[in-house]
Design brief:
By secondary structure, this protein is α+β, with helices and mostly antiparallel strands. It has 23 helices and 36 strands. The N terminus is likely disordered. The structure holds one RNA strand.
RNA sequence: GGGUUUGUGGUCUAGUUCGGUUAUGACACCUCCUUGACAUGGAGGAGGCCGGCAGUUCAAAUCUGCCCAAACCCA
């Protein structure tokens, strides 16, 4: 590392030149601290224009990973661009710390179980554990230069958010969008709570497929019968068996339908019924129905009005229905029952089997289906409306809308929002102990906890009874996190109506999030906000992909391929990591790539060195005077005109969240046009004394580059902005650049740059130093006023440029056809034309081309390809639009 | 099992909406060059016929169909 970097950053000195190498190790942490101290990213309520981002609040469940780094960096590109473009940005930060994830973290961290504590006590422990993680997380986010406004943060467990969440519950109930029902529910026996459809996922498990004999009590048609076989993976459900099903096409077992069977060991007699939902391919073709083993059991239970036999309780323990097995866990009961079946001669076979089971995504425990009383939000009756709501938002990339669409189309359950957990936001609800009437909290009193607060009435309005039972359940965590746009806008209830602290923040401009939670966070947010406000919560939705390892595989602890951000940042500057993150196509999964980090590091070095040169060439950089366009030298105007195009292009890229293209196009223009070409020219022009036109151009271009790079590379641009120009205000709060309306002969410029490039190649090929003089160069082509700059940059003594044809002999070597014109005109004769040209059977006749004596092609359809032969002094080089003759 | 998305040189990627001449760029690789901002630089080179097959067309990476592979979502 350089030892010349001990300059204090708080004393900008415009006269002091940049020197040495860029030292991100000290520069980056300095600025991160400075930005937080200066509140550089504070939201300005009074600004005329603004942009708001509904930041995803991470669940507090562990440490920062690459996904966080990637996702928050993408959001930060938008935030920084918009802050410069619009003036101010609302970029808050939240922690989602009220759900099962943080409960399980607390249990893990402290080695405790929630059921051993009072709810209050356990909640306190959760808060403490979460607080530590949140503090560490905040530091991490700051060290990534995420430009969050740290004055606007929230936690989903804090009282203000609890109030919002309970308010939402009451409003949806009043609108008739919620109901309470006792029904089969998806249940996690490990977490001991109801869960919703989205929280379950598939898992392949090894298990045993058991063939069990059932005694026939009587057959359906009175024929003889002794036993039949049922294949099941879940023998512990035998006590809950309420019927046996036969498929209508199952000829072999048709005689059983209408009969009765006896369940082994438990003895209950159950009906044998016909139903086409039986899977003929699996097992014996006969299936037992238990209340409940899976969703089909629920359907059968409802369709055939079967008995209810509940053999498993909330904790996955066998009930008294299981007779002697009562008190065993389901796993223990399974073992015991198989053994006893075997002893009794009812177990015919037990074989290995692999199948897919539904598990709770948080703990991988197999779900059960229990009949319990739960609260639901209605979804199924408004699918079409919610689809339409999704269409009202702009999706980036738009293909991600399909996921939202399919999720809604596939919905089969209303949303169960009650959870039997400790850490969460309570339902603001009590029940009359006598008649069961539901008593809701007053909106003005929220937040309430029915476990410690009294209901708002002394007597039941229905029956007059004065004893009440509190609702003990808490909300599903998504019931609260689906309100983030409203939390950000300060949605509240005051004086009999809904209000906003910051009405300008709703709807939000942008919802950024991963594609994995479209069906969780995005869907639930859209429907809840839509029901509360009658409008969709977002203008744009930006969906990011997942971070993969270098072999394009998902990072996971079990694969051991997880890369920690801290590991990356030990070896690379944050700006380099951001350069990598900008390499994505939005929505696609994105591999970690060391090469990109290295390329980012090189760009930082290039930017630093180019800035050093600009700084050296323009001693008065901070105070350079604007030169009117009419007084600018042609070459300077050309650079500024090219820059205009890049400004427009990069702006459009940011508007469309095309960070990868913004990065590539900006880098290319900066590196090849500005550094390779223009700086070389400027260097020579300023060599011969002061030149206001070039100095102004250098400064204008350089300042523009710093701004364009600022969203992607916030540290180095800030450092240069301050040091080169002595600016006191941050580059990140400066205005986004706009095109200056410069006009120049871009075609001539392009040709001239190609000539420079060709001369550079000539010198390289001929073993000459780049600064070696060339005595004479002739350019045949349109380079306008740029011959002189070319001569300066390439150290040419004498240069001549002419648009005349070069004084060389040519030989026709072929014909290039414009197939977009020739094709439609000649159709399937194109093959003949090609063949004739190939055979040399063509001649030029004035403006047209005669081919094979048969076809006549117009002037716009072809171009004659010539080989140039030069035998004069010097050497000929060809570029696309010019021929150059060089003499050393 | 169904659906969605993706499949371009060793790696990553542009181009695919509205088919059209030599398929873009970066990283890695090879050769040459100490040039006074930068060797984390510059010049040059090799490497792909666009997952596979079939079709439409004068013309297909680009359109259609089928197949294969991967990821995700849902059964």
């Amino acid at each position: 590392m350089s030892d010349t970097q001990d300059r204090p950053t708080d004393e900008p000195d415009t006269d002091q030149q940049l020197d040495g190498e860029y030292d991100p190790e000290t520069v980056e942490p300095n600025w991160q601290q400075q930005w937080v101290e200066d509140e550089t990213y504070a939201y300005d309520v009074d600004a005329d224009t603004r942009y708001s981002i509904d930041t995803p609040p991470p669940t507090v469940s562990g440490n920062l990973h690459m996904g966080h780094l990637y996702q928050f960096t993408l959001q930060d590109f938008v935030a920084r661009y918009r802050r410069m473009k619009e003036g101010t940005v609302y970029f808050p930060f939240g922690y989602d710390d009220n759900g099962i994830a943080s409960e399980r973290l607390t249990e893990r961290e402290l080695g405790i179980n929630h059921s051993d504590y009072e709810r209050r006590e356990f909640q306190e422990k959760c808060r403490d554990v979460c607080q530590d993680y949140e503090d560490a997380f905040t530091k991490d986010i700051q060290s990534l230069a995420i430009s969050v406004d740290w004055d606007n943060t929230y936690k989903t467990i804090e009282p203000r958010v609890q109030r919002t969440s309970q308010l939402s519950f009451l409003d949806l109930y009043e609108q008739g969008r919620e109901y309470q029902q006792r029904a089969p529910t998806i249940w996690c026996p490990d977490c001991e709570t109801a869960i919703s459809q989205v929280e379950q996922e598939d898992l392949n498990k090894h298990t045993k497929f058991n063939d069990i004999a059932f005694d026939i009590v009587e057959t359906g048609d009175g024929s003889d019968g002794d036993q039949f076989t049922i294949s099941t993976t879940r023998p512990e459900l035998l006590p809950a068996c309420v019927s046996v099903f036969v498929h209508p096409d199952d000829d072999e077992n048709q005689h059983l339908v209408g009969g009765t069977a006896r369940v082994p060991l438990f003895g209950q007699e159950v009906p044998i019924i016909e139903d086409d939902r039986v899977d003929l391919e699996t097992g014996s073709g006969l299936v037992m129905c238990c209340t409940f083993g899976d969703q089909t059991d629920i359907e059968w239970y409802q369709a055939h009005d079967l008995d209810l036999r509940i053999a498993i309780d909330e904790s996955g323990t066998m009930t008294d229905v299981a007779d002697e097995y009562e008190g065993l866990t389901t796993h223990e009961a399974r073992e015991a029952i198989i053994e006893d079946l075997d002893d009794a001669g009812y177990l015919l076979e037990s074989r290995d089997h692999e199948h897919t089971v539904q598990v709770h995504e948080r703990c991988d425990e197999e779900v059960e289906y229990l009949v319990t009383e739960q609260w639901y939000v209605k979804l199924l009756d408004k699918k079409d409306e919610y689809l339409e709501a999704g269409r009202e938002m702009d999706w980036f990339p738009d293909k991600m809308f399909t996921r939202y669409e399919h999720w809604i189309e596939g919905l089969e359950w209303d949303w169960c929002i009650s959870r039997q957990r400790d850490s969460g936001i309570p339902f603001p609800v009590w029940y009359c102990d006598d008649c069961g009437e539901i008593i809701f909290a007053d909106r003005d009193e929220l937040p309430v906890d029915p476990l410690s607060d009294d209901p708002p009435v002394d007597a039941c309005p229905e029956c007059g009874h004065s004893e009440f039972v509190p609702e003990e359940d808490v909300f599903d965590t998504w019931a609260t996190s689906s309100l983030t746009p409203l939390i950000n806008a300060g949605w509240d209830w005051d004086d009999g109506e809904f209000t906003y602290d910051n009405p300008e923040l709703y709807p939000s401009n942008l919802r950024p999030q991963g594609h994995d939670i479209i069906s969780f966070w995005l869907f639930h947010t859209v429907i809840k906000c839509y029901e509360h406000t009658d409008e969709v919560p977002f203008e744009h939705v930006m969906i990011n992909g997942m971070v993969l390892d270098e072999n394009r595989e998902a990072m996971s602890k079990s694969k051991g391929n997880v890369i920690a951000p801290s590991e990356v940042l030990e070896n690379f500057p944050v700006d380099a990591a951001r350069y990598w993150a900008a390499g994505t196509s939005i929505g696609d999964d994105f591999p970690y790539r060391k090469g990109d980090l290295e390329a980012g590091e090189r760009l930082l070095q290039k930017l630093w060195n180019a800035s050093r040169l600009v700084d050296q060439l323009t001693p008065q950089a901070g105070t350079v005077e604007e030169v009117p366009e009419t007084e600018l030298a042609e070459i300077d105007r050309w650079l500024l005109a090219e820059l205009d195009e890049t400004v427009d292009l990069v702006t459009e890229r940011f508007e469309n969240y095309e960070f990868s293209k913004a990065r590539t196009e900006l880098r290319d223009f900066f590196w090849s046009t500005f550094c390779d070409d223009y700086l070389e020219i400027a260097k020579q022009r300023l060599d011969s004394g002061p030149n206001p036109s070039t100095e102004f151009t250098l400064v204008r271009a350089h300042r523009t580059f710093l701004k364009l790079f600022a969203p992607l590379l916030p540290h180095i641009t800030e450092e240069l902005w301050t040091r080169v120009y002595g600016e006191e205000a941050s580059v990140h709060t400066s205005d986004w650049p706009t095109a200056g309306g410069y006009e120049a002969d871009l075609q001539a410029g392009e040709t001239a740059m190609a000539v420079i490039s060709a001369l550079r190649g000539y010198k390289s090929d001929n073993g000459l130093a780049l600064n070696a003089p060339l005595s004479n160069v002739k350019i045949f082509g349109h380079v306008g006023e740029f011959a002189e700059p070319v001569a300066e940059a390439m150290h040419v003594d004498e240069i001549e440029a002419t648009e005349d044809e070069p004084e060389i002999t040519t030989e026709i070597s072929g014909v290039d056809l414009d197939y977009s014109l020739v094709g439609p005109e000649f159709g399937n004769e194109v093959g003949d034309i090609d063949a004739a040209i190939e055979a040399g059977e063509f001649e030029v006749d004035g403006d047209s081309l005669l081919v094979g004596g048969e076809y006549e092609l117009g002037a716009d359809m072809f171009e004659i390809e010539r080989t140039r032969i030069y035998s004069g002094e010097g050497q000929m080089i060809e570029t696309e639009h010019a021929v150059v003759i060089v003499q050393e």
